Predict the 3D structure of the following.
Amino acid sequence: MDRQQCSQRKLSTTSTFAALVHLSHMAKPITHSSVSLQTNEASKAGDHSARELTFRALSGPMYSMAFRILADRPLAEEVTLDTFVDVFTKIGKLREHHTFLGWVRKIAINQCHLKLRSP
């Protein structure tokens, strides 16, 4: 990937993240404690509103953690989006609700490590 393609991808990712964050701030504040067993089960079933609730509740903390690890805003935004792509792709494999937040954190940390290892 050349420098221009890389810049365009970062701009696209940043724009997508900014749009999602903007939309999430238009609604009432949601905390990670709002992500209940019913929300997780609905997310597993493919309910888009439950997935949106999950993203709005957890994207801030996951972004903060990614930024602390990577010290780079665009990379932290990209990792946050990649984390939720993985979460919603693999949510059917989650067996116990009480491990959900730790599971999401682990995915985010793994995504950070992948970014740190990539050239």
Remarks:
- The chain has a mean pLDDT of 76.
- The chain has five helices and no strands.
- The helical segments are 3-26, 37-44, 48-70, 73-90, 100-117.
